[in-house]
UniProtKB/TrEMBL annotation:
Transmembrane segments: none annotated. Pfam families: Epimerase (PF01370). It comes from Brassica carinata. This is NAD-dependent epimerase/dehydratase domain-containing protein. GO terms for molecular function: isomerase activity. Keywords: Isomerase, NAD. Residues 95-215 form the NAD-dependent epimerase/dehydratase domain. The keyword NAD applies. SUPFAM superfamilies: NAD(P)-binding Rossmann-fold domains.
């Protein structure tokens, strides 16, 4: 497995594969991340999306599986696909059998709170979501040209150990502008990183041609509800009150540009056979807090 973009999901999945005796490599942006991952037995290559070193393709083509987890750049979209002819040429002479692009449920845009499936036409509202959709189409087209199993996984809001409502509360940092916008939504589809790994593993075991899957849990709950539950877990576990002032929410009248929708995961369950470890944020947050050291 070669992982283009060894971030939160890519790194988590790489460690899972390493434990299962896969040969795993990938890219990251910083020396510190490279050193951290090398301590875990993963060989990483430094790679900047702004100024890619295309010599990397000589390495990538030797791998049988390729996971793409680099987000589009605001100026020109997917940084890898901007040299798609070179990529097609290099990979067509290599060992690639399986290709997966990690996308986002933001491509659906606004459906007024209705449930959406993979059959609903995307209607992205933000520039980043439009670039995501273009990247999906680009990778599916490339996979088709190469004749390899190609999937797009549309991920909901990603959380897991070190990246959750619990961690945000404990850090006591003010919400960012994007977080405040999300806070105003009635519904937020999310998914635990463990379940993303399950979906990735299932898509390897059940290769397909140009398939798209929504990877989300069963409970598209509002952010406010999730934070309230996270607060209760913290107070119950460590018998400590924490200041919640930084986590005030906007009026619900402030609609998010990402739009209101509830994202269905039936395709993931029926086609990939994924049984969620964390069907709701509740079990996901509980598993996180149970494994945490006392932060106080």
């Amino acid at each position: 497995m070669f992982v283009l973009g060894m971030g939160f999901v890519g790194g988590f999945f790489a460690e899972k594969l390493k434990e299962a005796d896969w040969v795993v490599s990938g890219t990251c942006r910083s020396d510190s991340k490279k050193k951290d991952m090398e301590k875990k037995g993963l060989d990483l290559h430094l790679f900047s999306a702004d100024s890619p070193e295309w010599r990397l393709l000589e390495t990538v083509k030797d791998y049988t599986h390729l996971l793409v987890s680099i987000p589009p750049l605001a100026d020109f979209g997917d940084p890898i696909l901007r040299n798609v002819e070179l990529i097609r040429d290099k990979l067509s002479s290599g060992n690639l059998q399986w290709l997966c692009y990690l996308s986002s449920t933001s491509v659906y845009g606004d459906y007024g709170g209705a449930w959406v499936t993979e059959d609903h036409p995307p209607n992205p509202k933000t520039q980043s979501a439009k670039l995501r959709l273009a990247a999906e189409e680009g990778w599916l087209s490339l996979g088709s040209d190469l004749g390899v199993s190609t999937q797009v996984l549309r991920l909901g809001g990603i959380y897991g150990p070190g990246r959750s409502a619990i961690d945000t509360l404990l850090k006591q940092q003010h919400l960012s502008e994007s977080q405040l916008r999300r806070a105003s939504r009635r519904f937020t589809s999310r998914v635990h990183v463990e379940d993303i790994c399950q979906a990735l593993q299932a898509s390897i075991e059940k290769p397909s041609s140009s398939k798209i899957y929504n990877i989300v849990d069963d409970d598209p709950a509002p952010r406010e509800e999730v934070f309230q539950y996270a607060l209760e877990l913290i107070e119950k576990r460590w018998k400590r009150k924490i200041e919640t002032k930084p986590f005030l929410y906007e009026s619900r009248e402030e609609s998010s540009l990402r739009g209101e929708k509830r994202v269905s995961n039936q395709h993931m369950k029926n086609k990939l056979g994924v049984e969620l470890l964390h069907p709701s944020y509740k079990s996901g947050l509980q598993s996180i807090v149970e494994k945490m050291d006392n932060p106080f």
